[in-house]
Amino acid sequence: MDYLLLYSNCVLVKGANRATICDLQKGDIYPVPKLLADLFQEDRALDLALLKEQVQDETASWLLQLIDTLVASQLAFYCNRQERKRFPALHTEWLFPAHVSHCILDSATGRLDYFTESFIAQLGKLCCNFLQLRFFGTPAITHLEHILRLIKDAQIKSVEILVPWNAAYENAHTYAKWINEYKKISSLICWGAPSTHVVIPGVEAMGYLLYTGEQINTATHCGIINQGLFSTNITTYTESLHFNSCLNRKISIDVQGNIKNCPSMTDSFGHITDTSLSEALNKPGFKRYWHITKDQIAVCKDCEFRHVCTDCRAYLEDPEDACSKPLKCGYDPYTGEWEEWSQHPMKQKAIAYYF
Amino acid sequence: MIAIQSHSDEASTDDVIDWLLYLGADRIKRLNGNVSLNKETLRINNDSGHSSLFGELQAYWYRRGYFTLDIPDTGNPYPAVTTYFEKEYEYYTNGTAHFLSKQHSINSFCDNHTNKITNLVEAARAGLLIPDTLITADVKEIKAFAALYPRIITKAIAHNRIAATIDSDTYINIAVDTAIFDRDMIDALSAEQHFLPAVFQEYLEKKYELRIFYFHGRLYSMAIFSQLNEATRIDFRKHDRETPNRCVPYQLPDDLENKLRSFMQRIAMNSGSIDMVVTPSDDYVFLEVNPVGQLQWLSGNCNYPVEREIAKFLLHDQETGNRTTENHR
């Protein structure tokens, strides 16, 4: 065999210190030493004859072992010169038919009074797929059910809901009832619960119910970067090649009713009482962060996780620089180590600035 | 009006409608499940044609669903008369399906009647390799055929599923998948046994399998590495949830693409999912074509813009459609 070829939905992402192979079909991430990563032509094909020529004894056998592991993990396969051209690289276009992919609505009081039929119609026009409702105050059962009924018949594909944990709702099995009744709920997260655990595991197209002891009572809780939030799939990967991983096609309404790209950002593009979502969206500046790709962001551009990462443009290491590293990321791609971001001495100034 | 006939839980239909809305379509009519033509009218003359089912037709996509038999109860006690009614109704639905297929359209209800045997004949005539195939219920013939190959397989002639309603709450769904017909099972057959004729084919060793979506001359191909996984070695449709088969974009040789186009024209099917095998000696062997095959599986794993191109076709947005074809060649 002439080549070791990566399956085209297993993409090699090189970082400063090492690389990853992101298996976009199965959702796994495999770290790979830089030495091996650099041997791939066009980041896909490893010429086996060349490898044996160029690399010396011990290193060669170590690399061949790694290669066997890649084949055993079904990330790559052996092929000949003829076959190689039959396996083209993955199309990198981001295929997502929506003017707005996600809409985030924050409520301090537990009420979202603007959430009416005409508001749902606005979201429909924008082809909005996903909705996130973040309640920092407890919504009345009738109010939330009214919202869920509107969503049920709309084009929205799924909704994630954050609510304060409430003993009376728990006793009445209200949360479980919502999950069973409204299939579009992908997850219902009750914050401030007595303990953290999964109450209903989301299986077979059902939503999951999660209790967390954390206090998620303001929008400032957003923007944390960690491996658990990585999203290893074709949609995230291709979006990250062309657009900002966090802010592209997002719209939100903060607790005051201001229409923003993200609730944690300062720029407002009108108030929901007198501005429509599309009016806000088309105001100059609304989309100014949408084209900041990970390849333009300091530090991130050297990170092997850059195409599976969530990113954050609201909280930055250097608040003055739109292309600065996310503040709440504790990963150092130059050493390959994770640290607790909030303890980092370099971040204290920015922490003082935002919080 | 863009008319789509499908099922309510058919995901690719949802995806195409997302693209239609995104691209600005405003008049979309989706019919789900069983469609009765009883209260509908079909008008045909030399100037135009019109079915009340969809009104002014801009484009029509038959994805799934049925024109259902809906015969009013006249109290007729004679089975022969019932059969006559059913035939009449069937000709009406097929005629309507034909009328719709002559509009700017993708697939037709009549494509469901596509015939595996006919398709093998036409594939061979189009220059494609096909497996050696025997269709019989004759045990002697089966034994002689089995002696020619290390292994043979068997599959149904028409349908790979039996769906039967038991009562209003219960129905059964039996999969009739492709299976290896083992040597000892063949040996155990006695010449006096009677059974339904079935398809027997030489078992093909596979390097990988191909799923090819054909759509008005365009081809989107995917390689399936089914041999990595024991459960899918015989029939890749037996999906393994834990370890899904590796599925990646594949570029067919030009001459093979042309043969597939010619084959699809011969069987007059403007869209379908073609299954092929690549053998260890790099032969491309045609297996079958399914007019209403799974799409998300192919477009999702290969990042092909299939759903967008379907939407553009329905919107008569041909110019961009052709440009995309170029990218795929």
Automatic annotation (TrEMBL), chain A:
InterPro entries: 4Fe4S-binding_SPASM_dom, Aldolase_TIM, GRASP-with-SPASM, rSAM_sf
Superkingdom assignment: Bacteria
Name this protein carries in UniProt: SPASM domain peptide maturase of grasp-with-spasm system
Upper lineage: Bacteria, Pseudomonadati, Bacteroidota, Chitinophagia, Chitinophagales
UniProt domain 4Fe4S-binding SPASM: residue ranges: 247-304
Pfam families in UniProt: SPASM (PF13186)
Organism in which the protein naturally occurs: Taibaiella chishuiensis
UniProtKB/TrEMBL annotation, chain B:
GO terms assigned for molecular function: ribosomal S6-glutamic acid ligase activity
A single GO cellular-component term on record: cytoplasm
Domain of life: Bacteria
InterPro entries, alphabetized: GRASP_w_spasm
One GO-annotated biological process of the protein: SOS response
Descriptive protein name: ATP-GRASP peptide maturase of grasp-with-spasm system
Organism: Taibaiella chishuiensis
